[in-house]
Amino acid sequence: MTNLQQLIATWLLAAACTCHAQTPADYRVRRCYVQEVAWIAREVQSLRAQGYTERSIAIAAHGLRREIGREYKAITSAGMRQTIAARNLDRYGDAEGPTVTWLRGRGKTWAEIADSAGRVGGEDVIRLQGGLE
Q1: I need a surface site. Which of 12, 44, 86, 105 has the fewest CB within 10 A?
Q2: How far apart are CA 39 and CA 46, in angstroms?
């Protein structure tokens, strides 16, 4: 296991939000998701300071973002999950959201991909659902 892979494993343990089992309402789930994604942004900066390449950081941060997305979709209501998947398929061709290949194909740099892993989107999905409970 590389140092970067060890860091990612540590991230997954450290980022775990206490909201998982205790907050079934989509609003609270979303709030915890936003907290974890913001945490990725801080870790991206830390990896940069440690001298990792932008490519390595982008791949790690993007993978972590997708993993966090899967975890939170699993505890999101079925209706919201269906809306998210349909929107992502339509927009990115992937139910989980944009892939690194998709982003690179649209001219995104490794640094832009790393930075975007630490930002949330989805406001359009929330509007489609009429807000969160």
Answers
A1: 105
A2: 11
